[in-house]
Amino acid sequence: MDSDSDEWFTAPVSKAAKSQWDFGELFEQEALKKPTPPPNVPAPPSPAPPPASEARLAASAKPQQTVAQINRKVLTVSQLTAQIRRLLEGQLGQLWVTGEITNLKTQSSGHIYFTLKDTSAQLSCVLFRGELQVDRSLVQEGQKVTIRGELTVYEMRGQYQLIVRKLELEGLGALQAAFEKLKQKLNGEGLFAKERKRALPKYPQRIGLVTSPTGAALRDVLHVIERRNPGLEIVLAPCRVQGEDAGIEIANAIRLLNDFHSRGDASARKLDLILLTRGGGSLEDLWAFNEEILARAIFNSTLPVVSAVGHEIDFTISDFVADIRAATPSAAAEIITEGVFASCQFVSESERRLAQLVKQQLADKAYVLKQTAQRLERLHPRRKFNDWLQRLDDLQGSLVRCVKQGARDRRIAWQNLRERLGRVRPSLVLRQRREVLEQAEGRLREQARHRMREWQNVMKGLEARLRLLGPEQVLARGYSITLDAQSGKVIRAATEVKRGQKLRSKVKTGEIISSAE
Question: Phi/psi of residue 468, each to 5°?
């Protein structure tokens, strides 16, 4: 971090500044209290008072306003956003923020927009085209960085964002930036290409070792080689592995081993590979293995190079250029001695494996012999004769079952035919038809009697009604019918009777002869 960041972190924050950053006071609306307008913000113009008639009309149409509603101050969105921007820029200014780059977008204008996030929050950032102090190659998706910038508000969208002024890789600063730049440069030149990686000899007899003669890495390598391949010859090229000019010494040691390999005569034993190693440490401690001179010395080596620098999580430029990268010095020694160690194990286990193979072969042959004996037993003529006898018994049993089943089927068919013949005999059919005819005759007679009873009931009803309406019923109630004795004409009015006229009156029983007076 530069002096600006240190000043920001060490400068005391005043109590007033803290209270202004509290958004609760920014939007405070207390009753009977008019909020104080923020500094440098022009107050909105007061509306002109309405005419007296309109005021009276509004007062009659609307409910009475409270004092808090009359005294409240209403800000526009632009005024509020401008006030928030002044608060952010005035109180925070420049600051350092760390996080991971996501949502990276590079516009055609040259501006770079991205989001800086951590596990629980995110911040919009913008890197303008004219910002020359920032290495734009470090702005990559997923990269963890530390940024110095100015916090402001983009008023068009109402969002706060960070204007990037300086960018470093998180926690590593200039060393990490130099590491990434050299890594990209060498990768572009093809020093990391997989095509140029060489395989290690399976049974190395003499190796060159480049490391510090007093370091723990040397003891680890010697311990593993003594345990796994004691006959391996080691040629040590001592050098410093940390500090100023350590990278030059390591590169010279690699060149020295290559010269030693090339100067040996045909009868002398030459080197098979070079092991470059040291123990773990910080990025500063391992920086000698990140220098370009060492990377080019490894690239130009005629012998395969194994790089085992630091711990498993440490990666250096030499790891990328080397033919093989090992996680630790001990792991490198195991990789180098893997062929011999595996061969020794193979030889030591040969007796057990041979005994196991012989036992397996004997078991296989016994199984084959057993299978052959079983096949011979299955193919013996007595076995076939027994099978034929059993087959004859099965056929005989099937024949008896078929005869019984055929007799049963014929018996059932004969019974069915007998039943059918019995059902179609003429006497039986005539008897059934006679029974049906007798039943139909009985039903016809019953229906005729039923209809006769119904008509009789109807006739009796009509007769009763006719009798009820007849003159005999009227006479039975005490009335009489007067007729002209000569003509028999019914006398219906007194005017129709003359003096001395003979009349005949009918009553219920008998007639009465009378003369009119």
Answer: -65, -30
C-alpha torsion angle, residues 233, 236, 237, 240 (rounded to 10):
150
pLDDT at residue number 43: 46
pLDDT tens across 209-254, in order? 999 999 889 999 999 999 999 989 999 999 999 888 899 999 999 9
Q: What is the arrangement of strands in the sheet containing 481-484, beginning at the earlier edge strand?
A: 481-484, 502-506, 511-515
DSSP 502: E
Q: What is the pTM for the complete model shown?
A: 0.42
For the chain, helix (H) and strand (E) counts, in that order, are 17, 13
Closest CA to 270 of 304, 298, 308: 304
127: left (phi > 0), else alpha (psi -120 to 50), else beta?
Answer: beta
Q: For domain 196-345, which CATH number applies: 3.40.630.30, 3.60.10.10, 3.20.20.70, 3.40.50.2300?
A: 3.40.50.2300
Q: Exposed, middle or buried, 307 (CB in 10 Å: 0-12/13-18/19+)?
A: buried
pLDDT band (50, 70, 90) for residue 21: very low
Are residues 250 and 239 in contact, defined by beta-carbon separation less than 8 angstroms?
A: yes
How many angstroms separate the CA atoms of 195 and 307, rounded?
Answer: 18
Give the three-state DSSP class for 309: strand
Partners of 505 in the β-ladder? 482, 512
Q: Compute the average pLDDT of residues 417-446.
A: 84
Q: How far apart are CA 202 and CA 343, in angstroms?
A: 10
Look at the alpha carbons of 54, 55, 60, 62 in this order and tell me if their dihedral is positive or negative: positive
3-state class of 361 per DSSP?
helix
Strand, helix or coil for residue 484 = strand
**Of 3.40.50.1110, 3.40.630.30, 2.40.50.140, 1.20.1250.20, which CATH number belongs to 1-171?**
2.40.50.140
